Amino acid sequence: VFPSPGNMDRHHYEMFTKFGDDGFLIHLDNARGFGRHSHDEISILSPLSQCCMIKRKTLLHLELLAQADYKLSDVMRESLLEDRLTPVLTEPHLLALDRRLQIILRTVERCIEVHGEQSVIAPDPGQANLTN
């Protein structure tokens, strides 16, 4: 079994013991949670494509981030400029976010085509279902 090329994020720890018993733990994160920009790991969409359910508010947020004025890559780019470790993501990784968002939205569209909007888009807690 080979690891999926899309899930490259690995965490582990090392013990720094140069000073003997006064050693300390170092947590290492290789920061590959976004995977390779050129590879879209479709298997992570299995819960969405199999259950075909998404909260209305979540879908509305995703649809907003797909619009030209609020592109996910632009929002992330601007947000990450505040990080002291900038650049956190390369430009190809930022553009991959937009591409992957389109894949998610197409998955939701296919679910709606098969199961209907009322079955796929779940009302948010506390929101009355006005369509019934």
Reading the helices and strands in chain order gives: EEHEHHHHE
**Approximate strand percentage:** 5-15%
Shape: elongated
- Given helix and strand content, the structural type is alpha+beta
Domain FAM20 C-terminal: 6-121
GO biological process, one term: enamel mineralization
InterPro entries: FAM20 (IPR024869), FAM20_C (IPR009581)
Pfam family, one: Fam20C
Provide a compact summary of the structure.
The chain has helices at 46-51, 56-65, 72-80, 91-115, 117-120; strands spanning 11-16, 24-29, 54-55, 121-122. By secondary structure, the protein is of the alpha+beta class. The longest helix is centred in the C-terminal third of the chain and has 25 residues, at 91-115.
Structure description:
Mn(2+) binds at residue 29. Residues 6-121 form the FAM20 C-terminal domain. With 132 residues, the protein is of the alpha+beta class. The chain has a domain at 39-122. The chain contains five helices and four strands; from the N terminus they run E-E-H-E-H-H-H-H-E. The strands form two sheets. Strands 1-2 form a two-stranded antiparallel sheet. Strands 3-4 form a two-stranded parallel ribbon. It is elongated and about 65 Å long. Mean pLDDT is 83; it is low at 1-5.
Chart the SSEs and their pairings.
Blueprint: E1 11-16, E2 24-29, H1 46-51, E3 54-55, H2 56-65, H3 72-80, H4 91-115, H5 117-120, E4 121-122
Parallel strand pairs: 3-4
Antiparallel strand pairs: 1-2
Helix pairs in contact: 3-4
Brief descriptors of the model:
single chain, 132 residues, alpha+beta, two-stranded antiparallel sheet, two-stranded parallel sheet, 5 helices, 4 strands, elongated
